[in-house]
Amino acid sequence: MPGKLKVKIVAGRHLPVMDRASDLTDAFVEVKFGNTTFKTDVYLKSLNPQWNSEWFKFEVDDEDLQDEPLQITVLDHDTYSANDAIGKVYIDIDPLLYSEAATVISGWFPIYDTIHGIRGEINVVVKVDLFNDLNRFRQSSCGVKFFCTTSIPKCYRAVIIHGFVEELVVNEDPEYQWIDRIRTPRASNEARQRLISLMSGELQRKIGLKVLEMRGNAVVGYLQCFDLEGESGLVVRAIGTACTLDKLSSPAAFLPACNSPSKEMKESPLVHPPSHGCRSTHNSPIHTATGSRLTQNFSVSVPTLIYTGMGSGSAGKEGGPFKALLRQQTQSALEQREFPFFTLTAFPPGFLVHVGGVVSARSVKLLDRIHNPAFVGIMGNTRSYKLLDWNSFNSDEPETRDAWWAEIRQEIKSHAKALGCHAVVGYSESTSICEEVCILSASGTAAVLNPRFLQDGTVEGCLEQRLEENLPAGCGFCHIPYDELNMPFPAHLTYCYNCRKQKVPDVLFTTIDLPIDATVIGKGCLIQARLCRLKKKAQAEANATAISNLLPFMEYEVHTQLMNKLKLKGMNALFGLRIQITVGENMLMGLASATGVYLAALPTPGGIQIAGKTPNDGSYEQHISHMQKKINDTIAKNKELYEINPPEVSEEIIGSPIPEPRQRSRLLRSQSESSDEVTELDLSHGKKDAFVLEIDDTDAMEDVHSLLTDVPPPSGFYSCNTEIMPGINNWTSEIQMFTSVRVIRLSSLNLTNQALNKNFNDLCENLLKSLYFKLRSMIPCCLCHVNFTVSLPEDELIQVTVTAVAITFDKNQALQTTKTHVEKSLQRASTDNEELLQFPLELCSDSLPSHPFPPAKEHLESASSNSGIPAAQRAVTVEKASPMGEGNFRNRSAPPCANSTVGVVKMTPLSFIPGAKITKYLGIINMFFIRETTSLREEGGVSGFLHAFIAEVFAMVRAHVAALGGNAVVSYIMKQCVFMENPNKNQAQCLINVSGDAVVFVRESELEVVSTQQPTANCQPSCTGGEVTT
Amino acid sequence: MTSELDIFVGNTTLIDEDVYRLWLDGYSVSDAVALRVRSGILEQTGATAAVLQSDTMDHYRTFHMLERLLHAPPKLLHQLIFQIPPSRQALLIERYYAFDEAFVREVLGKKLSKGTKKDLDDISTKTGITLKSCRRQFDNFKRVFKVVEEMRGSLVDNIQQHFLLSDRLARDYAAIVFFANNRFETGKKKLQYLSFGDFAFCAELMIQNWTLGAVDSQVDDMDVDLDKEFLQDLKELKMLVADKDLLDLHKSLVCTALRGKLGVFSEMEANFKNLSRGLVNVAAKLTHNKDVRDLFVDLVEKFVEPCRSDHWPLNDVRLFLNQYSASVHSLDGFRHQALWDRYMGTLRGCLLRLYHD
């Protein structure tokens, strides 16, 4: 009996009226865990019942504790007929199972019903007594911590980063069982919610076991997804990165108060300057590995693109032998692993040595229909929803899915190898399903890692020191990891603009966050490529073949668009790249989002050159030159907007050592172009690195136009899809997380690719415009972690879901902060010097000022140039802030109303809270909800329905976090929002899956006052908890 | 391309004060968009009309969802669905319960019944306030009335506790509830010059001094119903005008004291008996519900209008009323001093407030 779960039902409030006659309710509560159920007394005639029950005690295995949710059902007692259910609360007790997280769950939970939504609240207290279990063969993995955060959580230190863990479980979807025809929608929804909750629990436990096997104690970057495969079942799969984490106990370890999350890491004892050099190219060689296996499972593996720069194994003179050594060690560390993948997107300093580029793989699969009548009978059994039962019938099923993913991962691995990398970071997997076709996608960034974190401390020592000696700050990760003489595809390399020692590509694409030490010029911006392709409706294999034939073209075009847009912004690198391909009945959609930046280490991007097909036609030429001018203007404007003004570097320093035949990448639109044209164009602009766009048909014209239609955000707004905005580090504390959903109906007539593209483009642009307008009161602010998801719920419907967080920043303070930051870093460097004598002096004192364009100088310059007019500047900001409608939001910190009892819970997709320190991680939040209505019109139509549902989901997440004693959710993500409507029947249904990490944070300003052990946020839950326990 | 669905949900519920105002004023989404366009917001922000439309729809939807909670403001504070900072919650409630002067003047003193609700069309046409807004204001009055009607304790406190209104607004609602309960006539033509503020001022004085609550704070309805016993007793005041000697003595006391101090002394002297009769008769009649309802009509007819026609300055009215009240204490034959003070103290305050153009 390894655990005792104790539950107490305290009270309810705001219950709905269940008895029309009395306008009251006779409520009681059923508490269920596993197969045991307890009931409270009936509290007669009240909408605010006070049950104040005894402690209900469940004695259970820890395996069950991990798998099962606690299920609380509130009912209305009816003497004559069946009791009516008011609603339910599912509580995941996992956070109580590891020692450092929450110790009690106590608070008000919304009572949720899948048909009526939230119907009142219930106050519950949950505790777990765990007994030590000496059984070594146990199936549970209690104690393994899970984090959604894709970096090392703030109050921990990574001792070892073990690597990739994955698992998936499969079951039949209750919605598609025969019994669904005779049960109510409510029963069906609840069966589904409960099943998914169980599956998640089981999955998490299994992953935990794998982590324990690897001798880790935590999973970071845990990403769990559901594939609703319809009749063929329900797949729950998860990936993550196993780590051994150490809690930073001394408060000194997470030192002062810095607005940017990055500094914190710098303060950690592991500080040492990262590597140097940079390079990347983005050539798009198409590795077409179209191996279609038409066995029992149809499968087409789709060509994969490797976006990136290629590398130099040869490296710089001094770096060479060392690098080889490093590689050897890393290799040995990584080779033991099947998949050297990491779901992390941000890393401890020194972890990431080089970045190769983006690797991705897709595969089209046909889902099998499962006809197994025998199955149904068994499902009626007591523990029917346990997946194991199901597996016994279709034992090959999970293996099939496993095999699919294994195939893709293998492909990713080989792509990484081709880039001279042993590892893939920022790794993620996704699916898109339409009827029986499923596209599996995986992508990541090929990288070379420092072995130090990958195995037990043996390697440390001299290697570490050498690393530190050899890698200059801010550019190391850009340096190509591959062999210059043996590049997998043609790339254009130059010597790093930062250190001049190593080679870098001209463009770098990655799926990770911008490394904190990267030297960036100016600010970043969100860059999106959007694309639609019509597809004939087809069945089964023909359909899958059609899709897999389209995919490479889509990938290619998405990539082209990204390149063009990046150039248009005058930038040279993309971070956080996420390409989503969505399949629908009659079309495919591609949406790529990334954050463009200008990396100081990479060469200045050339412009975009437009070339006409018929150079002799006068008017046409005029048109072309007009377009050219427009493009040039846009580039110039963008450079100004994003403050990209890299210092002029004299040619001799950079270019000379590399013989450069043609310093430009060509974008080939049509195969028919002649080589003469190239030279011709070459003459037309002497500048290197020009990007040529040939306008040889209307399609190309469209593309050029669409390039120019993207409107920059209004002044005062920035946007990015990474954690932090490059170039902004003075966040103020105001944050607003939001979800916005739009669905458009395409007119089914005359659907062409162009019309479709335009519609899709407009949809996204309008959505962004709306966001800017809505959040205008927060100016100056930045939309961070902008996450777009596209789905095609029906033939003519396109649904776009965006989740992001708007964070305000202080324009004026910026200058000061950067200044002090620089001072601090200089200071720190010098203290480091004294302490660690092995630190070469040049690095600290010389390197910064001696750079041609060191960050310090940059900041100081801007500081001094602006300091003359501080008053005027301040005036501007004040003026901007005050007249805005929502200006009062700033007063959030004002003393709350005396009678307000609801504590504020912040939610953010980021891993940090600006201006605050996360003091405790309370556990993972992973929730799945279904909401259905048969009175769509009455609930305000589809918009009203979904608006209310999303608000309810937020509320339930907040309530769970508050009950755990937390005051924020970080790394929040809405993984799924599946919306289906049937307006004719006045019906709609929506499924939402969200996750994140519940945390306790303390404002930096309060940090000095409040003792770290008793965060103010605990106030509310502990009060109620205290009352009850005594 | 048509937008099927378009929503924005923030973890902190976004409230746009301007849109809230338009919503409260009862404008439809399209009217609200048109008004916002006219305010020049498009130029300021560089947004398009479509963006404005979508934004307005979103806010309207939010307000619609919040409305249910606004009907019982404490629910807004405890609910979990919308995370709204306390200062914003207060603003939402305060604005929702705010009312238009023009509207309240139409409804003040009327029975808050279905019948009155049917007349809202006319009120809307007359005042230019949208019917939707009229309905909201009427329903607010009615809701507050229903909740506090039979409650023990201070009316203002009860309203504040159950509707979380500011002190100022709670006092206004107390006046509305008091007037609705006692059905004071306020719509007559000769009362048109009076503002809601005038009536609210009088209501407050009357609640303080003339209700059950003024003598006993432990009874139901204490602040809503007038003290019936007190009204009965007021008959006793009649001797002040019925007893000729008393009336003359009263007059001479007042005249002696005010001689030389009053600009309109002669007019006062000439009118004293009429005025005094008027004021005392009003008191004596208050036993009948009908006459209670006409209290303000009577006060204006019997006192305000005569004085106004003689062009009494306000200060003279004040001096007169002070002296008129005080002199009664010197009337040896009059035994109801306390009753007189309870009546006249309030009436004096009311009359001074009512006395303007």
Automatic annotation (TrEMBL), chain A:
PROSITE patterns xrefs: C2 (PS50004)
A family per Pfam: YbjQ_3
Domain C2: 1-109
Region entry Disordered, spans: 652-681
Superkingdom, taxonomy of origin: Eukaryota
Alphabetical list of InterPro entries matching this protein: C2_C2CD5 (IPR037785), C2_dom (IPR000008), C2_domain_sf (IPR035892), C2CD5 (IPR038983), C2CD5_C (IPR057815), C2CD5_YbjQ-like_dom (IPR056430), C2CD5_YbjQ-rel_dom (IPR056431)
Entries under PANTHER family matching the protein: C2 DOMAIN-CONTAINING PROTEIN 5
Protein name in UniProt: C2 domain-containing protein 5 isoform X19
Organism: Vulpes vulpes (Red fox)
TrEMBL record, chain B:
One annotated Gene Ontology cellular component of this protein: nucleus
Classification via InterPro entries: FIBP
GO biological process entries: platelet aggregation
Top-level taxonomic group: Eukaryota
Signal peptide span: none
GO function terms (MF aspect): fibroblast growth factor binding
Protein name: (raccoon dog) hypothetical protein
UniProt organism field: Nyctereutes procyonoides
